[in-house]
Design a protein that fits this description.
Layout (H helix, E strand, L loop, with lengths): L1 H8 E6 L2 E6 L1 H29 L5 H16 L8 H8 L8 H32 L14 H13 L21 H12 L5 H16 L1 H15 L5 H10 L5 H4 L16 H21 L6 E2 L3 E2 L11 E4 L6 E4 L5 E6 L2 E6 L1 E2 L2 E2 L2 H5 L34 E7 L3 E7 L9 H25 L1
GO molecular function: carnitine O-palmitoyltransferase activity
Pathway: Lipid metabolism; fatty acid beta-oxidation
Main location: mitochondrion
Length: about 450
């Protein structure tokens, strides 16, 4: 419906007396609220980006470090071992930069550098701790003493109230296994599938692979692992996921259900409205990075990279390989109903639509979804605009050939004063009256 808003927000008419300009206050109000919402979202994203960037520290810890350094200076103690004086000598002297100002600014710069060094040190220690993987292979319910000590250290260095992407900079790189370990694990995996003779042949092939091409491949993998945090993910996505030709609907797509054993209402539109509204609330937290990161055992953080493409993402099909298209911000969802796709608007005045408002937008209640066989005269080509005002109409038309013109009319069920069918009948009668006038003129001539 944004197209309809844009179409009627500004109207002007050129007359002999000048230009008559008309502005829609309601549309301008919606544009203003949408802009405010957009800037709020940017501000929150920036704030959360700063919190994520300095994690496991916090902006308040920077202030504590600055106050501590300034306090030591006033106590005639130099914790920088001369570094503050060196910074001071490198600063220019001017009427705006007094000696006292130089001293304060030098202390702040030193405190900031010390604070950033502390952050990088904590991240490096946390990354080293997360490289420990023995806890994965321990029996469920049994934990060794070393694993308990390790979990305590990870919990201590993980900070408080992490955001979704707080641990991304602290996660270790995916290690490249040795050639011997790779071949050993491969032979163990195929041993139950082969008889003795086939297994001996496989051992021979594996040893030949170990001598010639394996060292070259190993160098390439190590080179890639130095500049990519995960040397497998892009290849996996390309060759396993996007080049897979199996049906996506039953093999890859995820789905959601509101309730399994309780049916609050039999109105599918109402249940869909509640599900969509809940998903919008979840997407808002996801886009702002406010979700709690997934952690094994409640402590060990997992990678959150794939969360970014949970929404606003689609898979575009190709002949040999597909590709993923991710959009930054979308304000509608697509509904597939009876062989047709519909664009359902999700925002009004810069806010999410409530479940009851979403329910009124369901395709089952739109005029252009009436059964073709039952009401063929109500169905035509093209698409239409939605109403701008709550008590108004959205009207568009398309000329098909020389003998047909099709009108699309929409209105809101919430308004008792509007009726799309009645308005359509009035347009039809007006067109018939115009045709009758032309026929009358032809008879007179």
């Amino acid at each position: 419906m944004a197209e309809a808003h844009q179409a009627v927000a500004f109207q002007f008419t050129v007359t002999p007396d000048g230009i008559d300009l008309q502005l829609s206050r309601e549309v301008l109000k919606h544009i203003y609220l949408s802009g405010v919402t957009s800037w709020k979202k940017r501000a929150i994203r920036f704030k959360n980006g700063v919190l994520t960037g300095v994690y496991p520290a916090s902006p308040s810890s920077w202030l504590i470090v600055v106050i501590a350094i300034m306090s030591t200076m006033y106590a005639r103690i130099d914790p920088s071992r001369g570094m503050i004086d060196r910074i001071k000598t490198s600063l220019p002297v001017s009427e705006f930069m007094t000696v006292q100002t130089q001293m304060v600014l030098s202390a702040i710069l030193f405190a900031t550098g010390l604070w950033l060094s502390f952050i990088f040190l904590l991240r490096y220690i946390l990354k080293a701790l997360l490289s420990y993987h023995s806890w994965i292979f321990e029996s469920h319910g049994k934990m060794s003493f070393s694993t308990k000590i390790w979990l305590s250290l990870v919990k201590l260095l993980s900070g408080r109230r992490p955001l979704l992407y707080s641990f991304q900079a602290s996660l270790p790189r995916l290690p490249v296994p040795s050639i011997d370990d790779t071949i050993r694990r491969y032979l163990e995996s195929v041993r139950p599938l082969l008889d003795d003779e086939q297994y001996k042949q496989m051992e021979t092939v594996a040893n030949d692979f170990k001598k010639d091409p394996a060292p070259k491949f190993q160098k390439h993998l190590k080179l890639k692992s130095w500049w990519a945090t995960n040397y497998v993910s892009d290849w996996w996505e390309e060759y396993i996921y996007l080049r897979g030709r199996d049906p996506i609907m039953v093999n890859s797509n995820f789905y959601t259900m509101d309730l399994l054993y309780v049916i609050p209402t039999h109105r599918q539109a109402a249940r869909t409205g509640n599900v969509v509204h809940a998903m919008l609330q979840y997407r808002r937290k996801l886009e702002r990075g406010e979700l709690t990161p997934l952690r094994a055992l409640g402590i060990v953080p997992m990678c959150s990279f794939q969360y970014e493409r949970m929404f606003n993402t689609t898979r575009i099909p190709g002949i040999e390989t597909d590709f993923v298209q991710h959009l930054k911000d979308r304000k509608h969802l697509v509904v597939y109903h009876r062989g047709r796709f519909f664009k359902v608007w999700l925002y009004y005045g810069g806010r999410h639509l409530w479940p009851s408002e979403l329910e009124l937008q369901t395709p089952q209640q739109q005029l252009n979804l009436i059964d073709i066989q039952k009401f063929p005269k109500y169905v035509g080509a093209g698409g239409g605009f939605g109403p701008v005002a709550d008590d108004g109409y959205g009207v568009s038309y398309i000329i098909v050939g020389e003998n047909l013109i099709t009108f699309h009319i929409s209105s809101k069920f919430s308004s008792p004063e509007t009726d799309s069918f009645r308005f359509g009948q009035n347009i039809r009668q007006a067109m018939l009256d115009i045709r009758a006038l032309f026929n009358l003129k032809e008879k007179k001539m």
